[in-house]
Here is the input.
Amino acid sequence: MTSHTELSMPAYGRGFHLITRDILERLPDLPADGLLHLFIKHTSAGLTINENADPTVRIDFESFFNQIVKENEPFVIHDMEGPDDMPAHIKSSLVGSSISIPIHQHRLMLGTWQGIYLCEFRNAPHRRIIIASIIS
Amino acid sequence: MTSHTELSMPAYGRGFHLITRDILERLPDLPADGLLHLFIKHTSAGLTINENADPTVRIDFESFFNQIVKENEPFVIHDMEGPDDMPAHIKSSLVGSSISIPIHQHRLMLGTWQGIYLCEFRNAPHRRIIIASIIS
Amino acid sequence: MTSHTELSMPAYGRGFHLITRDILERLPDLPADGLLHLFIKHTSAGLTINENADPTVRIDFESFFNQIVKENEPFVIHDMEGPDDMPAHIKSSLVGSSISIPIHQHRLMLGTWQGIYLCEFRNAPHRRIIIASIIS
Here is the structure.
């Protein structure tokens, strides 16, 4: 059985944002056993799971991703929407557009240090839609 | 309930190829609610979701991935199958070998600009097998 | 229906480790049709699927990931746990914390050359926990 909840997220600026609590508060009751699947309906943002405690980790994420996927590369053709656009597409495919987390005893089986990140790769804040699917 | 369909894809050359329509045409009827899981059975190709409208985006994908994972790095040991082989394995793990998309009202819940890419990382065209699993 | 098995893995040192056989030996009987979902409960390790035959591939994986995500970058803020810590978080998000593989006829539908890698990104060996979920 699969049920979906559409979550309209706050418009975050560029960066990596911890959304675990926000997601959990908006989900229906979780089943005894299952899987939570989160899917972001955009090609210049992404979802990933990483460290949930120290905010400097998320700042370093932004720096590392800018180092791996640089702006203003001379080979870029698709540049109409600005220098942040094409790198945003690449970063989106590097982290991916979905994550999935096992559910047990009506709770997410996240590790102690694991949190859910919304990765906003565009400069301008965007409202992003996430589809939360519960499979049980 | 899970059902699988094995899809033998056309032999694409190196690059990022939009396969959304091809996949949809070959799938059985989608359930009212569920999840579509696509899995590519190869280690030098991958699957990702990204921009579906402007073909230059896919050209820029090729350029960026070649920048991130360079050929002929002096440290490479596994080079018997040519300079494109080991980078192909790395790229495959960067994008991943599976994607999953929520299904609602018998349709994929893709965002307006989202399409499915088959990423062929070898120079020579290869016929790739994708397992499409519908979970409902 | 979803059932989970918690797998405590051996403490591997830094690198990419083939764990397909170890995982299979510890799973309960697989259903006729379904999906295997593996989730690692850590933010400085990851899971991926790649080449299962030549051990030099896994050595080259280590070299390439160290090239893509370098240690001792001047911009790093989160460095209390050593120079391998923050790069480990980034690499974890590049490969991802989960993989999923279709199940058919009570077997994983892996391609001939596909194996499951546990990616240990910290220098010191760590015992990692993987949650194996069978969806059928």
Notes: Chain B has one domain: 2-135. Helices of chain B lie at 20-26, 55-68, 85-95. The first strand of chain B starts at residue 2 and ends at 8.
